[in-house]
UniProtKB/TrEMBL annotation:
Designated name of the protein: ASCH domain-containing protein
Residues of the ASCH domain: 26-146
Naturally occurring in which organism (per UniProt): Lacticaseibacillus chiayiensis
Pfam families according to UniProt: ASCH
InterPro entries according to UniProt: ASCH_domain, DUF984, PUA-like_sf
Amino acid sequence: MKPENYFTQAKQVLGLPGSTPLQSAYQFGAEADALAALVLAGKKTATASARDLYGVDEPLPQAGAYDVILNASNEPVCVTHTDAVEVQSFLAVSADHAFREGEGDRSLAYWRQVHEAFFEAEYAEAGKQFDPATARIVLESFHVVYPV
């Protein structure tokens, strides 16, 4: 099922107005299936992306918006509602945020190790250099609203 159709189905079940927009449909990269499972289990309620890699015409995520989480086959898994969005430096990301990302042992040390490697690769792909001291990170908090 296409993400748009899945979201239309979710809006009907949730009683949302038909005009409610879908912010995006995305997967969590190479770990798409495992991380989508953490979202469904309620263990992953946050994510992070590199502010510096958003395009000029690519808007930042917005609190109050809805997203469709996809598995590795780009099939819809669930709909989330974005509770909060903030931009912080990589080194200012909190232990609480790392815990809510739900990965590994959920520690800040684990989060930094995994995300530093992830962001280094992402920046390199964009022809940029990742610097933990200056990188700005978009932190999103969310919860699953469909399936309920």
